[in-house]
Amino acid sequence: MTESSLSRRGSRLTVDDWLDAAMQVLISEGVGAIKISRLCDRLGVTKGSFYWHFTDIAALMKALADHCRRVEDAAQKTLADLHELPPADRIEAMVQLVSDPRRWTVESAVRTWAETDESIATTVAAIDDQVFRIAHEAMRDLGFEEPEAHARATTLLYAGIGYLHARPRHGPASEDDKRIFIDLLTGR
Length: 188
What we know:
There is one protein chain. With about 190 residues, the chain is an all-alpha fold. About 80% of the residues lie in helices and about 0% in strands. The chain starts with a helix and ends with a helix.
């Protein structure tokens, strides 16, 4: 049981409490582990509390999917704000975003869920498209011709996705790793 669930035991849970618990299970154990009984145990409440907020597990999963889409929408806004930066700074900011532990835990879990849920997959694809567009524009702004700008933007996208999936086994990228990667992408 988490510290937050202990402090909430004496008060009524909210939909956000249930979504937070479901997100924690999604991140730590995957979408298949999200079960009413597991969430109730995590929050220290009975199933009646769950049914107070949701008609069934499908309603929770829809609310969780909506929550994940809002998180991804916020990520898209953050990416859109990068447009104002100089091109090399845009690339560096994108590398920093993907290597931020708060971001990659959620992103990795959502990407895994997207493998089995088309609505989540559509949201993830939109983020990937935006990452590619921003990286491609930055590479063009750095003076790379089209084929090379495309290849470098694709490399950034694929490396970011690979990092999300490989990081649990290989650990986080060091600052040197990130700097060398940025130099490889942006250097001539």
